[in-house]
């Protein structure tokens, strides 16, 4: 199975890479040094790229070639009220979660029966004070995927939206750390793979 993990150096991305050791693994992230170390550990190939740049995203996906599984584990978190949030923060959140995903779906090459996996959020968890920008970015992503799913299904590609509970990754560092009871990245990764590799895979996987 030819697998591309985007955001591979993050907590969830690296846990997925370790679980998929032995597959034909392509790993991408912006942090080249950490990416190369992870690739050496799991026997994968490091393809550093900044997915917020469409030209870089296109070049990466051309190099990756036809995929059986694509995992978009890219994102960021932040807290700011609607009266305080800056334009840069809003644009950064939308770019990280939504624009990178749109570039990936635009330029990726898939084999018949491939899965393309993206991470949304339970609305009740994120539509709360201070998380408006994050909630909006995830909402935009989920709406886009709903339309993309119908288009790509005609090409034999299954788009899977995964909604996770809180996962104890570095995403929470700007917020003071993960909440109590957050899933370990290894457990989250195991549940994700169990779900998305089912036949047929679900359109929305809620864990």
Automatic annotation (TrEMBL):
SUPFAM superfamilies: NAD(P)-binding Rossmann-fold domains. Keywords: Oxidoreductase. InterPro entries: NAD(P)-bd_dom_sf, Sc_DH/Rdtase_CS, SDR_fam. The keyword Oxidoreductase applies. Pfam families: adh_short (PF00106). It comes from the Bacteria. Belongs to the short-chain dehydrogenases/reductases (SDR) family. This is SDR family NAD(P)-dependent oxidoreductase. Gene3D superfamilies: NAD(P)-binding Rossmann-like Domain (3.40.50.720).
């Amino acid at each position: 199975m030819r697998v591309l993990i985007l955001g591979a150096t993050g907590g969830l991305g690296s846990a997925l890479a370790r679980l998929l050791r032995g597959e034909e693994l392509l790993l991408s992230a912006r942090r080249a040094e950490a990416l190369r170390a992870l690739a050496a550990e799991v026997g994968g190939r490091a393809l550093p790229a900044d997915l917020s740049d469409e030209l870089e995203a296109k070049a990466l996906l051309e190099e990756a070639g036809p995929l059986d599984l694509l995992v978009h584990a890219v994102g960021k978190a932040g807290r700011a009220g609607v009266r305080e949030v800056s334009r840069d923060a809003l644009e950064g959140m939308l770019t990280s979660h939504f624009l990178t995903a749109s570039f990936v779906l635009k330029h990726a090459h898939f084999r018949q029966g491939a899965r393309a996996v993206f991470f949304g959020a339970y609305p009740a968890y994120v539509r709360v004070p201070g998380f408006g920008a994050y909630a909006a970015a995830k909402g935009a992503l989920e709406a886009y995927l709903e339309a993309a799913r119908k288009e790509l299904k005609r090409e034999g590609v299954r788009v899977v939206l995964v909604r996770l509970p809180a996962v104890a990754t570095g995403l929470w560092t700007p917020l003071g750390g993960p909440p109590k009871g957050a899933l370990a990245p290894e457990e989250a990764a195991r549940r994700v793979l169990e779900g998305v590799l089912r036949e047929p895979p679900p359109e929305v996987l809620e864990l």
